[in-house]
Amino acid sequence: MIHAGVDELLVGDAELMTDRLRASGVPCDLHLWAGQVHDFAVAGNATPEIRRAIKMIGRFVQDVTAQHR
Question: What is the pTM of this model?
């Protein structure tokens, strides 16, 4: 799972990494967020977008760790 702001400088890197992971057979979801800056989710509980991103990340971690038990 990769999160990036639509207009951030590193969005191209996020897209490239997603493409390369998928081409290598690694499942990867790219989530692009409008109006968000790089690493926006570290701001905790400040906006609805951050809360949604953190919930998505939490579900992802639960799913991945459950698969490896």
Answer: 0.83
